[in-house]
Amino acid sequence: MSGPSTYVPKSGFARWMDSRLPLMRFAHDTIITFPTPKNLNFWYAFGAILAFMLGIQILTGIVLAMHYVANADLAFNSVEGIMRNINYGWLIRYMHANGASFFFIAVYIHMFRGLYYGSYKAPREVLWILGVILYLLMVATAFFGYVLPWGQMSFWGATVITNFFSALDQITPHWGSAIATWLWGGFAVGDATLNRFFSLHYLLPFVIAGVVALHIWALHVPGNNNPLGIDVKGPQDMLPFHPYYTVKDSFYVALFALVYLAFVFYAPNFFGNPDNYTPANPVVTPPDIVPEWYLLPYYAMLRSVPQKLLGVLVMAGSLLTLLFIPWLDTSKVRSTRFRPMMKQFFWFFVIDCAVLGYCGAQSADASLTLGSFALPLVWIARLATLYYFGFFWVIMPLLGIIERPKPLPTSISQPVLAAAE
Amino acid sequence: MMTMKVLTLAFAALVATSASALAAEDLSQPQEPIKQSWSWDGPFGMYDRAQLQRGFQVYKEVCSACHSLNLVSFNDLSYENGGTGMFSAAQVKAIAAGYKVPAGPDEKGNTTDENGNPLMRPGIPADHFPAPFANEEAARAANGGALPPDQSLLVKAREGGPDYVYSIVVGDGTKPPHGFKVIEGKYYDPYFPGRNISMPPPLTNDSVTYSDGTKATLDQEARDITAFLTWAAEPKLEDRHRLGFGVMLFMLLLSGLLFLSYRKVWKDAH
Q: Helix A377-390 vs helix A340-361: angle between axes, to the nearest 10 degrees?
């Protein structure tokens, strides 16, 4: 990958293989000698954690699919059959369900990390865009997966999300409804919908695995960014990936798995919605239809717009905005560590996302009561949506021009000297 | 220190104002469930087998008149033969035999007897609990239009879980506060959404006579049925807690060893 290969085949077979399909050379250069900046901190472990979680989800998912029945009449009870009658079925299903939540916890930390250290800036734009695509694929996969148990939230969540397309009726009459009908394979969410969602839920993780390969490829060409956001100056700034980062990543993966498994064993329904333990019923609408926690900020943005089509566009826009970040940030400096103004706006953005998540979890007409003063949450969500877009489309481009960054260290090996200046 | 104090005072003031706003109780909203402590709480929590037996008795003698338990088989009630329950295999056999379940066609292909009634046979451990009503319409017709929910997953399907189920049982039929109009044919239950519940108060003191001699107060019965229904919804909880302990120990050890390796490998890196 970057730099000449240092692989030396040791056996006759290895030499024979190396001149035909140099798999070992590829593995050696990618995960053994790959030169990595020596100052990567804890936040850089989430790439490995995400790879681990993808592996867990695929493995548990394949086993679940052996016992699951994608049929509107049988799906709910087949999941309960897994919970009650399959050996360790409860463990595999709770690992899969909580695995989705922890996958998202990891991906959000990974994304905020990239945002903070400017890892999307040249020459890593393609790496970032592939990451956004991975995130969108994860959202789609998680949505399809949540439908499969065919509980009340599965059914009504699927109904709400697929109905977004019918908003397009406001542009061309019947066009959006036609798309929704096509997606459902019928005139409402039903058996056909469940079957295709299962098919896609099984397919997309392998697409994700493929894009992960591209993501890692795009990482290995320019090499890792680092918390200082400056380019590596030479071998003195680097360490081989193995054993330094294999052992460091392994430690953090184990720590992350410890927390994840604590939820699996001791609070397996913490992230779930009780309504999904009631079988899907097309004639009974639950009082509050809420998506899974990791989609709540988008749900809040959707509901903050009083007009349906605009709401859907705002929600889609909030996701698509992520693709443009490499060109919206005009600063010459990558790392927020050296950007005093950006630092404040960044942390306010993190809080903003949490506020949006909170608003998305409350019922649509909820308000925040302080004494006799009641502030409708929808207004908080509106302000938060405004900041979400403002952060990317106004603050990011402007800050690069008006902000005066702190002096950068001359190299990774000598950050102390620079700080003393 | 000073700022901490100011912050605490400000927080206290905030709580006080929001509490006064809540003082006038909104009777259209349900009360929070009564918090109870349960034997299965916490990482080492386990079910109390005697309590599960009493809870089963309450289900069998009271709840099962209206509520199905579709996902639970008789064998699940056993602590033998792969079950996680509260009875021996022999006891389960006897319990199952006490139920009549729909039988298949006989050797002549008849599905009904000479009087036209569907053929029935005594239950075996592999059977699931038979439902009290043939279908939803029959259940509604017998319950004033309301549908008694299946109880297999009830505890996991309600916000508040066991506390909620317990509260519904003890709250049903209590005296409504002044000014609250109970809908004709319904009962007051402060913990139920809307506070009007279709279920008549299911339990009172001595609704059952416990075979283990426990005094059957309403509170005792409500706690016991809640325990049984929690087990019905989460029958693998004990396995989960036991395995979890081993997994946590292993993960701590693994993390510790990896941390030491990490420190050792990185010692010469700077």
A: 140
